[in-house]
């Protein structure tokens, strides 16, 4: 079993890096799970017991990797939400700029005041 993976992982800052890490983490989980299952099958077939220290380390590593996958999935969801929010904020700013250019200042200020009143009514 590969022991170079350190737990818990450091979460990347970009979606691309997160997706690459998720691929590597998923492959590591599959490999670890396969090794554990192969050891169990060999034990069942031969009757020889599995190396308890190895089995304990492999099972612990698999648990940590699964926890890291959950943390990474949650982190990816936050990054996507933040990305959508930033995109929507930019779209709103560009819309306001376009409206400001297209309509007169009086109309724009009247619309802005109406929006402020609606926001106050929601609170």
What attributes characterize this protein structure?
mainly alpha; 3 helices; 123 residues; single chain
Task: Tell me about this structure.
- This protein has 123 residues and is mostly helical.
- It has one domain.
- The chain has helices at 15-46, 52-102, 105-122.
- Helix 1 runs antiparallel to helix 2 (52-102).
Derived structural class: mainly alpha
- H/E element string? HHH
Provide the gyration radius in Å. 27 Å
The proportion of strand residues reads under 5%
Individual helix count: 3
- Report mean pLDDT, rounded to a whole number: 92
Termini separation comes to 57 Å
Q: Tell me about the largest β-sheet.
A: none
* Uncertain residue ranges: none
Q: What is the helical fraction, as a range of percent?
A: over 70%
**Number of self-contained structural domains:** 1
Number of strands: 0
Shape designation = rod-shaped
């Amino acid at each position: 079993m590969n022991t170079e993976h350190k737990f818990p992982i450091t979460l990347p800052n970009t979606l691309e890096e997160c997706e690459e890490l998720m691929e590597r983490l998923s492959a590591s989980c599959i490999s670890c799970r396969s090794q554990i299952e192969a050891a169990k099958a060999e034990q069942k077939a031969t009757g020889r017991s599995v190396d308890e220290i190895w089995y304990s380390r492999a099972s612990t590593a698999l648990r940590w990797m699964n926890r890291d996958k959950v943390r990474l999935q949650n982190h990816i969801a936050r990054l996507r939400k933040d990305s959508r929010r930033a995109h929507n904020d930019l779209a709103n700013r560009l819309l306001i700029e376009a409206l400001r250019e297209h309509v007169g200042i009086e109309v724009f200020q009247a619309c802005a005041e109406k929006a402020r009143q609606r926001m106050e009514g929601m609170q």
